[in-house]
Specification:
Elements: H1 7-19, H2 21-33, H3 40-66, E1 73-78, E2 81-87, H4 102-125, H5 131-154, H6 162-166, H7 178-196, H8 217-243, H9 250-276, H10 281-295, H11 304-327, H12 337-355, H13 365-370, H14 380-409, H15 416-421, H16 423-428
Antiparallel strand pairs: 1-2
Helix pairs in contact: 1-4, 1-8, 2-3, 2-4, 2-8, 3-4, 3-5, 4-5, 4-7, 4-8, 5-14, 7-12, 7-14, 8-9, 8-10, 9-10, 9-11, 10-11, 10-12, 11-12, 12-14
């Protein structure tokens, strides 16, 4: 019996999934704290709507496209090799066994993961993204785009089978979602930042960025702690259900997740202290979440020392990426979502190839269910690189193109008056802090 099918493994997976909503709550608080006070309620309301819509879309058709490793699928035979492209399951989760089956637990976990991935673009598009448009965009992401890539990586698809078909290590490996959740969500955030453009007043007439600080650092830091709790559950559930690890390795998953986050936050604090003369709370928080994103893929397959190194690299790279995206590329990302999730997740994908150590049996569920033996680690780096190239070369253009068309049918950016007034009043009719004065654009440098 494979670890994923054992009663102990399923019990651990069930408990871990119960923690995952803390990740969504933490990310919502972080995004709320990093925007101005007149948009705070809108961001929290948007987070609820995004998760609700994403869960509904994933229920309708998302899991039917993604499926579970070993289940029915559509395959294409090329050059004597079968390429698994898409799951073939009924809509509306029909046929799932809810008496503790791995597939049913995976569907529940993936519903939450799709909601988390759909929440990431909000950090980059906050303060100018219409609520109705973001719901439409989230439905497309969770119901179509996310399941496609998740099937390739987690559902027994062609990326996971690179080891079997071409001898590239164990195929594409991602225990906790550095690629399927973090990088995909971050690339969607990049697409939205391109389509929407910068916030009003963010750049001067000379093209220099102006500082628009968030309104509540306590929300941001509290969100980091909540995200950490949920991330441990997310990585543990993913490692058991989707990578087939022995449940006894959950302790290693939790330790590596914590070490990656802590090392990244510490590195970000040092970098900002060197550059600005004092550590920056918001950038250190971004480093913390970036460490969580980077450490997810390899959380079950590396020793703690490697997890610390993964976090250190992420913590150094993320503040620099935030600065360069804003200063050199003119990309306005209030929550740092592109750097945290796209850059952090991409580094996490590559880190598996650099530091991963894979005991028997093979670690993707498709191979475990088929009873195949260990393939060896040779070529793992190339398998990870192919997965990252797929995200950049196929998923990014697809996400951008879909949202570009959606923007033509349903303009995604609010009117200038609504942006000046604040989305709390403009779209919700009430502010988050009605008893306090909220600052308007008169406080921005022109």
């Amino acid at each position: 019996m494979s670890p994923v099918a054992s009663q102990t493994g399923l019990a651990f997976a069930l408990f871990s999934i119960l923690l995952v909503p803390f990740t969504i709550a933490g990310l919502a608080l972080i995004n709320t704290g990093l925007v101005r006070s007149r948009n705070a309620a809108h961001v929290m309301m948007s987070s609820l709507c995004i998760v609700s819509v994403a869960a509904g879309a994933y229920f309708v058709c998302g899991f039917a496209f993604q499926g579970f490793a070993g289940g029915p699928s559509y395959t294409l035979r090329l050059g004597g090799t079968e390429w698994n492209w898409l799951a073939d399951r009924p809509l509306f989760w029909r046929g799932l066994d809810w008496n503790g089956s791995p597939a049913a637990l995976a569907a529940w976990m993936q519903m939450l993961a799709a909601g988390l991935a759909a929440s990431i673009p909000l950090g980059a598009a906050a303060e100018r993204w219409r609520l109705s448009a973001m719901c439409a965009s989230s439905a497309i992401l969770a119901g179509w785009i996310y399941p496609f890539f998740a099937h390739w990586a987690w559902g027994g698809g062609w990326l996971a089978s690179l080891g079997v078909n071409y001898g590239l290590g164990h195929g594409f490996v991602d225990a906790g979602g550095s690629s399927t959740i973090q990088a995909l969500g971050g690339l969607t955030a990049l697409s939205m930042a391109w389509i929407l453009g910068p916030r009003r007043g963010k750049y001067t007439h000379e093209g220099m960025p102006t500082a628009i600080p968030g309104h509540n650092a306590v929300f941001v830091l509290l969100g980091c702690l909540l995200a950490w709790v949920g991330w441990v559950g997310l990585n543990a559930a993913g490692a058991i259900l989707l990578s087939g690890i022995d449940p006894r390795q959950i302790g290693l998953v939790a330790v590596n997740t914590t070490f990656a986050a802590g090392a990244a936050a510490s590195a970000a604090a040092v970098v900002t202290n060197v550059r600005f003369g004092r550590p920056d709370a918001s950038l250190s928080a971004n480093g913390w979440v970036g460490g969580l994103a980077a450490g997810s893929a390899a959380c079950a397959f590396v020793p703690p020392a490697a997890a610390i190194l993964i976090g250190l690299v992420a913590g150094i790279a993320i503040p620099l990426a935030i600065e360069n995206l804003e200063l050199r590329l003119g990309i306005d990302d209030p929550g740092g979502a592109i750097s945290v999730h796209a850059v952090g997740g991409s580094w996490g994908i590559l880190a598996v190839g650099l530091f991963g150590r894979f005991p028997a049996p093979v670690l993707n569920t498709a191979d475990a269910l088929a009873g195949r033996g260990t393939l060896g680690d040779e070529g793992q780096w190339l398998a990870q690189l192919i997965g990252l190239a797929t995200l950049l070369g196929l998923v990014l253009p697809l996400v951008y193109g879909v949202n570009w068309v959606l923007n033509r049918l349903m303009p995604q950016r609010v009117a200038l008056e609504g942006e000046r007034q604040g989305l709390d009043l403009h779209e919700l009719g009430a502010g988050a802090y009605p008893e306090f004065l909220t600052h308007t654009d008169e406080f921005l440098q022109r």
